[in-house]
Amino acid sequence: MKTFYVIDGHAQLFRAYYAPFRDLTSPKGEPVKAVYVFTQMLLNIVRNERPDYLAVTFDVSDSSTLRKGFYPEYKANRDRSPEDLQVQYERIREVIDALKLPVFELEGYEADDLIATISERLKPEDVELRIASKDKDLHQVLSHKVKLWDPSTGELLDDVRLRADKGYGPEQAVEIQTLVGDNIDNVPGAKGVGVKTAAKLIAEYGTADAVLANVAALTPKLRENLLAHAEIMNVTRRLVTLDRDAPFDFALEACAWRVPDVQPLTQLLDSLGFRSLTDQAAALGGGAGAARSGGAAGAATRSADGARTAAEGDRAAGPTEDGGAARGWAGESTEDAAGTGEPAAPADLRPAGTRPVIVGSMDELRSLATELAARPAFAFDTETTALQAVDADIVGYAFSFEAGTGYYVPVRSRAEGGVLDPEAVAAVLRPVLEDQRTLKVGQNLKYDINVLARAGIGVAGPLFDTMVAAALIHPERRTNNMDVLARDLLGLTTVPITDLIGKGKNQLNMLDVPVADVGAYAAEDADVTWRLYEHLTGLLAEGEGVRTLFETVEMPLVRVLAAMEREGVSLDTGMLREYAGVLGDRITGLRAQLTVAAGKEFNPDSPKQLADVLFDDLGLPVIKKTKTGRSTDAEVLEALAAETDHPLPKLLLEYRELTKLLGTYVQPLPGYLAAATGRLHASFHQTGAATGRLSSSEPNIQNIPVRTEAGREIRRAFVAAPGRLLISADYSQVELRMLAHFSKDEELARAFHEGLDIHTYVASQVFGVPLAEVTPDQRRVAKTVNFGIVYGQSAFGLARTLGIPQREAGAFIGAYKERYTGLERFMRECVARAEEDGYVTTILGRRRLIPEVRSRNRNLRQLGERLALNTVIQGSAADLIKAAMVRLHDRLRREHVGSHLLIQVHDELVLEAPEEEAEAVMRLTVGEMTGALTLEVPLVVDASAGKTWLATKG
Q1: pLDDT value at residue 207
Q2: Closest Cα partner for 888 from 741, 880, 449, 719?
């Protein structure tokens, strides 16, 4: 049987855009990661799958689909596509055209409809249709001749596999979706009815209508939810049913795959900087890379089994002429600065091939410990029972010190015997891990440090965290987990954790997995971590200043963050319960006020109902529209509150604030308390932002609102333990001080040296009034400009923020720039350096690629200009507080062992200290923070103490 591959174009476009590779840019500075991944998929299909027929389908637009005609809220919940996606879509269309592939798209219809129609028209043919998509909407067309094909894994899903995996067949798919709906597409479904419940109901009753006819036999809650859905159920059915007779011309032979003239394709791929893809495309026509301007000399070398010896995704430059991967950092040549480092393509990956050694006796363990102690460095990892370190027991230890081999020491298992005694193992490994001379290598080391601390084992000596090193070298990479780094940097595939423990409700604990399987997995982890260390350590040495930043700030910070996570913070759950009641009462009252203000009952959480009330019933002006209709976002409500006298917009803003506070913070926070300690142990991340700023999760403490009284009240729940106080120390206007430092603007520097209020000072100068006569409105304008213009805020943006005419805003910006000439000069120089070098650096040498500044796309170029300035200023502020945390942590360990850092939020540090030491610790903290770096202007830190976090703010 012949095969026909049809690609769900937009689904694969988004898959390519969000693929876990670092972002790529062409030599001309345009974003091309999605283009690369999509093109690699196409070439893999024609090279590996050898299709007889091949075609691509695309949606025309979400707004034009006929489904919106009878349900306007269809897909109304989707965010606007990223601004750099459209240009990549256009490039992908160029690639498709160069391959001479037929494209099917039809106004009013979605790609799924066209695919369903193709499946229907192929029924008489001896052709198997393979759909490049994972969309569950296509389950309804599956059969023995129509299959979903996953381009990433090659897995096929037909009707038989669907029944085995999901418990239902294609003929039941529409009825199940009719009950469930689809949150992704904003298709309404019965509340609380998931796929499993719906599948059982349809299996018993046959159709969604029959289910409704028999609701009396169901549980009261399920009956209530299904009856509530009944009114709109037929709309849901229409939304999820694919059209199998879409009106477009389809001829099978027009889709026959034939190798086209490859020269236009190779020229296009070469212009985008896709070196390996250029060679692959040339090979379609019998060439081997000569179609590229550099000939075959640039092709990556391959080992005997065809695997690439060095992944191109490890650096910004492409392969060098000797066949190895280029070893330079981006920015060291004109090509490197804007060039692209291609990620390892799926066809080029090879298994890690680790040789696992299971340590089965104490004699073998002692031999391993002797070997580790003799090594200058080794990689280690722990396998544990829990994700949160404070609750985790060690299942086993893994080590590696030579590529290709990993050692596993099992200490706990419920699956079988043969493990070593945990205490005896700890006694042997403790001196090895606590040896000050040996470099310890790991991936996300602070987790392992805390797990070991719980077992009474320290980790001493220098550290090398491969996750942090990779993020420092390529800060634009979206994720730095080991599997991704192994693939992108080493060209290796690794065993996913789900292969061991599964996922979902049937997920196993690592204790329940056979020791040999855990050992193979853990040994691979340690081995790959060691290989990453060997790979990354050379790259760090090549980046000017980056190695110093890594060794003196980022690696010491790993210990600081580990200690903060281990310590945790106390939470007053009683206060949170009480505050939840207060907020609940206020929300109930607000809903009543909303009904009165609107003149009728409506759902304030429904964008459509809200738009109808605001713009149709009340006749308020439409501020802006989106593809899905009239916007009711916060910006619109704020504008309506300012421009109209109607009370509804202001009430809605308050309602949204309080419901978010209640549902996002007040109610969930107690759930984060660790069972072992009764304290909240947030995770702090040093690899999450390209600027180097720290972030937090579980929970995200940094996002707790502070601008409103209701938001600030949450900080009252963060409390000191009995006999202790919390201390808050906050840098004053640190980003403006960094701006003064870099720009060397004399006027700005003078204000800081004289200890003046910077916003009042700027208002005085720009408005031409004495300091004592500056009005609050003038200071507000100056403050907005100080924090806005330096990050590229335009006159339009300033006017909108301040609610003033654009001409007035433009005049103020002009006066500001004329007065502070040093700022304007620095901003121009910063952008010029980014254009010339392809990157910018922070005060301590952190480097970030800014390819957007070279883009021919005006919007992308302006984005690049903003990013360049933002990175230098905000990234330098991040360098400062990280350096301060390292200094402060060391001083506390030496002089105040009972005091600890607990929380970092932007420019603020929160500590806990015994009450009798609080004053001394506060003075020490201020001294270490102000002395962390020397700037052209003085650093100022505001510090205070209290029983709660809120109390430290006075």
Answers
A1: 92
A2: 880
Q: How confident is the model at residue 775 (pLDDT cuts 50, 70, 90)?
A: very high
Dihedral angle over CA of 494, 500, 504, 509, nearest 10 = -130
In single-letter form, the type of residue at position 203 comes to A
Report the range of poorest mean pLDDT among 37-46, 325-334, 724-733.
325-334
β-bridge partners, 910: 728, 903
- State the angle between helix axes of 806-819 and 795-802 in degrees (0 to 180), rounded to the nearest 10: 120
What number of H helices and E strands is found in the chain? 37, 26
Please give the angle made by the CA atoms of 623, 629 and 632, to the nearest 5 degrees: 50
Q: Of 117, 139, 1, whose CA–CA distance to 55 is shortest?
A: 117
Own/partner long-range contacts of 69-73 (Cβ < 8 Å, ≥24 apart): 70/235, 70/238, 71/235, 71/238, 71/239, 72/608, 72/628, 72/629, 73/186, 73/607, 73/608, 73/628
Contacts 24+ apart (CB under 8 A), 826-835: 826/739, 826/742, 826/743, 826/744, 826/745, 827/743, 827/790, 827/869, 830/742, 830/868, 830/869, 830/872, 831/864, 831/865, 831/868, 831/869, 833/868, 834/864, 834/865, 834/868
Mean pLDDT on 884-901: 96
Q: What's the token pair of residue 258?
A: 């034939």
**Residue 733 backbone phi and psi in degrees, to 5:** 45, 50
Q: Report the predicted TM-score, pTM, of the whole model to 2 decimal places.
A: 0.70
Please provide residue 125's backbone torsions phi and psi, each rounded to the nearest 5 degrees: -90, 155
Three-state secondary structure of 500-541: HHCCHHHCCCHHHCCHHHHHHHHHHHHHHHHHHHHHHHHHHH
* Rounded Cα–Cα distance for residues 336 and 278 (Å): 18
Ramachandran class of 174: left when φ > 0, alpha when ψ lies in -120 to 50, beta otherwise: alpha
Cβ burial, residue 856 (10 Å; 0-12/13-18/19+): exposed
Of the candidates 113, 417, 414, which has an alpha carbon nearest to the alpha carbon of residue 246? 113
Measure the CA–CA gap between 443 and 232, rounded to whole angstroms: 50
Contacts of 624 (CB under 8 A, 6+ apart): 630, 631, 635, 636
Q: Tell me the two tokens of residue 54.
A: 């091949």
Residue with tokens 């290796």: 492
Nearest alpha carbon to residue 382 among 532, 582, 181, 526 = 526
3-state helix, strand, coil in the chain (%, to 5): 55, 15, 35
Record the tokens describing residue 939, joined without a space: 């650093």
Query: Angle 582-587-588 (CA atoms, 0-180°, nearest 5)?
Result: 100
Predicted confidence at residue 302, as pLDDT, reads 23
pLDDT of residue 325: 28
Of 301-305, 330-334, 609-613, 714-718, where does mean pLDDT reach its minimum? 301-305
Q: List helix spans (H) across 126-272.
A: 159-166, 170-180, 195-205, 208-213, 220-230, 233-240, 263-271
pLDDT at residue 924 in the model: 98
Give the dihedral sign, CA 65/68/74/79: positive
Residues 6+ apart with CB under 8 A from 838: 330, 331, 336, 337, 338, 849, 850, 851, 854
Cα Rg of the chain, angstroms: 30
Helix (H) / strand (E) containing 868: helix 858-895
Q: Where do the domains of the chain lie, and which CATH numbers do they carry?
A: 2-254 (3.40.50.1010), 259-348 (no CATH), 350-542 (3.30.420.10), 590-678 (1.20.1060.10), 736-870 (1.10.150.20)
Are residues 719 and 571 in contact, defined by beta-carbon separation less than 8 angstroms?
Answer: yes
For residue 903, pLDDT over 90 is answered with yes
Contact in structure between 149 and 278 (CB atoms under 8 Å): no
Spell out the residues 6+ positions from residue 34 whose beta carbon is closer than 8 angstroms to its own: 13, 16, 17, 19, 85, 88, 89, 92
Instruction: Characterize the bridge pairing of strands 908-914 and 900-905.
Output: antiparallel
How does the average pLDDT of the chain come out, rounded?
A: 87
Q: What is the pLDDT of residues 435-453, one digit of tens each?
A: 999 999 999 999 999 999 9
